Each structure stands twice: as C-alpha cells, then as structure tokens.
Amino acid sequence: MSPPKPNLPELSESSPETRAPSRKEQLMHALQEVQGMQLAFIGLHNGLVQALAGGGMEEPAALARKTNTDKGYVLRWCEAAYAFGLLEEEGGAFMLSDEGRAYLPDQPGTLMPLAVHSLLGGHMTLRAAELTRTGERPGEVVLGEQAAILPWFGPMLAANFGPLFEQHILPGVPVFEQADRKGGLAVDLGCGNGWYLRKLAQRMPGLRGLGIDGIGENIRQAEKLAQEEKLDHRLTFQEGDIYTFSLPEPADLIAMNRALHHVWDDKERVFKILADHLKPGGAAVIWEPNWPVELAALRQPGKRGMAVQNLAEHIQGNHFLQPDEICQQMEKAGLKAHVFLFMNGNEQVVVGRK
Ligand SMILES: C[S@@+](CC[C@H](N)C(=O)[O-])C[C@H]1O[C@@H](n2cnc3c(N)ncnc32)[C@H](O)[C@@H]1O
Fold first, then answer.
1. Is the CB of 214 inside a 6 Å radius of any atom of ligand 1?
2. What architecture is the 23-101 domain classified under in CATH?
3. Closest ligand 1 atom to the C-alpha of 240?
4. What percent of the chain has pLDDT over 90?
5. Fewer beta carbons within 10 Å, N or C terminal of the chain?
6. Considering only CA atoms, which residue is closest to atom 5 of ligand 1?
7. Domain 23-101 identical in fold to domain 173-293+319-353
8. The dihedral sign for the CA sequence 73, 76, 82, 84
C-alpha cells in the first residue's frame, strides 16, 4: 500500500511562494547573510580561503594538512561553507565558489572587511550589553580582547578606506598635491597598519613618512608591508604614543585618520602637539567620520553604521565629532582650518594649515 499523500496546502495569494516575506523571514534571511560572513571569517583566519585561491579541489583532510589546522574542524567548515555557497563540492573535495573568492583579501573590492566586521560587531555588542548595566568604559583594551580579530583590524581598515582615499580624498584635497610638489616628511599618528603612508609614498616619490601607533601588532604589519612594497627606505614605523612622540625634523604634513576621536579628551594638548611639530606652511590633515548635527540624519542607511560604531566608541571612552568642533580646536591652536566632505557627507577631512 502506498503511503498516504501529505496534505499539501493549495497555492494561493497568501502561500509562502507568492506572498511578500514576513518581517521574521526577512530577518532570518539577514541572519543567514551574517552567518555566511562569519564562516568566511573562519576560513580567512585559518588561511583556508587563501589556500583554495589557486582554484583547485581539495579534500578537507588535505586542506587541513596544507594549512596546519585540525581536519575535524576543517571538514565541518567545508560543509558549512558549502551550505552557504562559499565552496563548491565534487566527490568529497571542495573548491572556492565565486562567492568564496570574493572574500580573498587581495581581491579588488574584497568582502573581507565585512567578514571581520560581522565578528567585531558581535564582540562589541556583547561588551555593550554587559557594560550598559555598570556604566564602565574600559577603553581600547576591549578591541584587543579577541585574539582572532586583532590581526584583522589593519587589513579591514585598509580595505575599507584605502580605495576611498585613492579615488576621492587624494584628488579632492589640494594639500596632497602640494605635499607631492614639496616632498618632505609626512607623519601619520595612529597609523594602524600603515596603509595611508604606503599609498602616499607610492604616489609621491619625494615624500618620506613616519607612522606611529600604540598597538605593536599594527607596527609589525606596517613594517612588513612597507618592506614587501619596497618602500621601507622611505617609510619608518614606531610603536609609540600620540602624546609623547618626537620627530627628527618638523613635518610638512601630519595626518590622523580615525585617530583624533581616540584622543579627543585631551584635545587642547593634541592640537598644540600638531601645531608644534609642523613646519610653517605645513598642514594637519584630520580624517574622521562626520557625526551629523541632526539626529534624524542617522536614519539614513549610509549613516546608521556610524551610530552603532559610536556606541562601540563609547565603550572605548570616545565619541564621534562634528567638523565645527575640530575646526574650533584647530583655530585655537593657530591653524587655519578648511573642511572637505566626502561620501554623501559621511566622511570629513579637516585640513589645518600652519
Ligand atoms: C580606528 S584606528 C585607525 C587606524 C588607521 N589610522 C587607519 O585609518 O586605518 C585608530 C588607531 O589609533 C591608534 N591610537 C589611539 N590612541 C593612540 C595613542 N594615544 N597613541 C598612539 N596610537 C593611538 C590605535 O592604536 C588605532 O590603531
């Protein structure tokens, strides 16, 4: 006897196939997109994605041997990455799909920063959830609490902001062309993995650079990358503090990219330091997210992320700034301020000329 037929609902206007997805279905879909990014992060962090970049098929055990990882975890990762379309499978061996390839860090427009962000966002959310009860603001140590995320900060920021710098900010802010003509010394305070100075040095053969950052991992990456790009004869990186560094000569340009809000509590001191270390005619170039004056502007999809990040900044003892606040401090320190806006006004570059 054949089994009874399942009682299938008839397709109608309201059947799942034809009706608009419910809010819950939309969110489940969004959650799956995040899970895909998180799986990509596991693959990137363990070199699994990079090991498959050549395009060949690998069995999980072979992939584990190649990357010096555990074959049990790699098998489960391959299955999950296959489920999310990051890998293709044939006969128990796996290869990168186009979706998986899009996460390769060197790929133009790489999705890698989103994979890192999906985890960093989770970490900062958990910390904010705990700390909202106590009001404690532990500072930047929170960023270093997840050993797996720390090495990805530099690459994430470089991939997020490097193209924007090259395509819009470099050609849009005249100070760079002047620095190119004059040469001299460019200093990057809070330089991260040094991507900004490397991009300047590639374009400007007469420029030398010094990058300073408080995180040793960033400086190690910056030195290695400068060496790989054969820029290390012109670029130096030092682990150090924005408040206490010294320069071999007055600087032609001092940049701070997403670093000023980290030291805003002591703003008078910071702007005095900038003014004191610049040559006459030199410029401080401050790049920050542009915190909107009107709360309603935060509803714009392009600005929402800034609001979440500002909550994460609160944990670190920081907050985002408006151009007027920065200009005011520049003028107080004797620098002539000029504001440039980019990306629909989401990014501000404030130049202060000595
Ligand atoms: C958001 S990250 C930006 C990094 C880099 N400028 C970029 O655009 O990729 C801020 C950086 O400022 C550095 N920083 C914050 N306060 C600092 C201080 N007092 N001295 C040195 N570095 C500092 C942090 O270590 C971090 O690398």
1. yes
2. Orthogonal Bundle (1.10)
3. 21
4. 92
5. N
6. 192
7. no
8. negative
Q: Given a cut of 80, is residue 162 above it in pLDDT? A: yes
User: How far apart are the C-alpha atoms of 323 and 239, rounded to whole Å?
Assistant: 29
CATH superfamily, domain at 173-293+319-353: Vaccinia Virus protein VP39 (3.40.50.150)
- Please provide residue 12's backbone torsions phi and psi, each rounded to the nearest 5 degrees: -145, 180
* Contact residues for 221 (Cβ-Cβ < 8 A; gap 6+): 151, 154, 155, 193, 194
The domain spans of the chain are 23-101, 173-293+319-353
Distance CA 34, CA 48 (A): 19
Alpha helices in the chain (DSSP H): 23-45, 48-51, 60-67, 71-83, 98-101, 112-134, 150-164, 170-172, 174-182, 195-203, 216-228, 267-277, 301-315, 323-332
Q: Please tell me the pTM assigned to this model.
A: 0.92
**Tokens matching residue 214:** 């408080």
Distance CA 126, CA 9 (A): 42
264 Cβ below 6 A of ligand 1? no
In the block, which residue shows the tokens 């799986």? 39
Q: 257 CB less than 6 Å from ligand 1?
A: yes
